[in-house]
Each structure stands twice: as C-alpha cells, then as structure tokens.
Amino acid sequence: MFSLKGRVAMVTGSGRGIGRAIAEAFAAQGASVAITARTSAELEEVAHEITRAGGRALVIAADLAATGAAARLVAATAAGLGPIDILVNNAGIGSSADPRAFADYDDAFWDRTLTLNLTAPYRLCKAVLPAMRHKRWGRIINVSSINGKVPSLHGAAYTASKHGLLGLTKTLALEMAREGITANAICPGPVHTVMNDRRIEYDARRRGVSFDDIERDMTPIGGRLEPADVAPLAVYLASDEAHMVTGQAYNVDGGVLMAC
User: Fold this and answer.
1) CB atoms closer than 10 angstroms to residue 210
2) Within 13 Å and on the Cβ side, how many CA atoms surround 253?
3) What's phi and psi for 145, nearest 5 deg?
4) Are 56 and 88 in contact (CB under 8 A)?
5) Where on the phi/psi map is residue 185: left (φ > 0), alpha (ψ -120 to 50), or beta?
6) What CA–CA distance (Å, rounded) separates 53 from 30?
7) What is the rounded CA–CA span in Å between residue 43 and residue 37?
8) Count of C-beta atoms within a 10 Å radius of residue 8
9) Could you list the active site residues?
10) Who contacts 90 (Cβ-Cβ below 8 Å, separation ≥6)?
C-alpha cells in the first residue's frame, strides 16, 4: 500500500467506524495520527491499538461544534506531532439521530447537523491551510456520503450537509490546485456502523419489515460495507501518488448509485 511515512494526519470522528479504520490504516502506513472525537475512552482504545502495532497516535477529545474547536485541535496536533499534512473530516451526525419528514423537521437538529457536518469541516480546512501552503503539500479528504449525490428520505439536514460538503471540496480543490494541496471526497454507501444501525432500525419500523431484510439488500453486492472497506481509498488519496487527483468525489458503495 502507499507509504505515508513522515506525514502527520488528523482524523476526526476516529473513535469508531470509518474514522477509526482510516486512522489505523494511516498509522500502519507510517503516518503519525491525531485522533479526535468526543469520547475519550474510545479514542484511548484506538490509540492503544495503533501504538501496539508500532504506530504513533495523539488523543485529543473535542466537540467540533464548540466555538474555537478547530483552531485548538490544529494547534494541539502541531504541538504534539507537528504541522498537519493530511486532514480527514469524518466526524458528523446522521439522519438516524432524529429522522423526520421535511414538513415536520426540527430546526435545532437542522442547525446542529449543518454545524457538525459542514461548518466544522470548513473551519478545520481553513485552520490547516497555512501550514500546508507553507510546505506546498497537503491532502484534505472529506468523508461525505452517497447522500451527497442522491436524497435520503426523512434526512433533509444530512442530505443537504453532505451535498454542501461536496461543493466545499470542489471549491477548495480548485483554489488550492497550484499550491500542492489536493482536496477530495469519499462517498460511502451503507456502512456497518452504530449510526447506520439506527437508520436501518428506523426504516424497518417505518416499512414494517425486519432489520435483516433491509440489510441483506442494501447494496447490489449484498449487505453493507465494513469501515475497513473505505480506508484503502483514503490512504491512496493521502499519498504522494495521488498528487494529480483533486476535486473528486469517489463512491465506495457496493454499487448502490450504479443501480439507481
């Protein structure tokens, strides 16, 4: 796999799921990784696994919705590991936290979703750019969703935020293209995570079918993805070899969008 030796990466939402898989894959390829999420216990477990395998990890518990969180995270990473070369914006909130029809949507949940899924990545991207521009090297990877391209029933805020994240990614890619900084997005389909479990449970109740019935047919390949299915693409996009890849939004979805 592609080497990330000597690079410093930050992966948000890395206590579990896709973020954890990416952080562990980065560390396995030689990167020093700042891992951040709200739950310290989960982060400590990830850090233990990384260091046990010979890697280097820095734990920073933080709520990205808090004012000034982006600047504090970037400063803490620089102090502990060095300036950030690779940023993965993975943290976010899904529609399963409060699924509702648009006409009945909760305004506070809309605001929180947009803050975590779109505004926090925007702030983190801005915060890492000075060091990347100074080095004339940087990799920004935004974890969007196939719902950044197609809608999700009863998930207006999630769909809007993930569409917005793709727009942010492309604009950033265009503006940074001559400075050695790439920006790309990964658009996972249904992944075996706690957040997606809750969405399946909601859809099963709504449709009057079983959890297993929904899960079995979620992708043309069958079933759901595992977090580790997403990580190899992130490693490639973070590598030197991907220096001519920017402004892209790659589906890792078991064929879902192909079949739409």
Assistant:
1) 11
2) 21
3) -175, 160
4) no
5) beta
6) 11
7) 7
8) 23
9) 158
10) 11, 12, 13, 14, 18, 19, 22, 143
Q: How far is CA 83 from CA 13, 165, 171, in A?
A: 19, 24, 23
Q: Which positions of the chain have pLDDT values less than 50? A: none
Which tens digits make up the pLDDT trace of 56-96? 999 999 999 998 999 999 999 999 999 999 999 999 999 99
According to the 3-state scheme, what is the secondary structure of the chain? CCCCCCCEEEEECCCCHHHHHHHHHHHHCCCEEEEEECCHHHHHHHHHHHHHCCCEEEEEECCCCCCCHHHHHHHHHHHHCCCCCEEEECCCCCHHHCCCCHHHCCHHHHHHHHHHHHHHHHHHHHHHHHHHHHHCCEEEEEECCHHHCCCCCCCHHHHHHHHHHHHHHHHHHHHHHHHCEEEEEEEECCECCHHHHHHHHHHHHHHCCCHHHHHHCCCCCCCCECHHHCHHHHHHHHCHHHCCCCCCEEEECCCCCCCC
Structure tokens, 3: 């080497």
- pLDDT of 46 reads 98
- How far apart are alpha carbons 173 and 248 in whole angstroms? 9
Q: Return the pLDDT at 259.
A: 86
Sorted by where each starts, the structural domains of the chain and their CATH numbers stand as 8-189+228-250 (3.40.50.720), 191-224 (no CATH)
Q: Determine the distance from the C-alpha atom of residue 253 to the mean position of all C-alpha atoms in its chain, rounded to a whole number.
A: 15
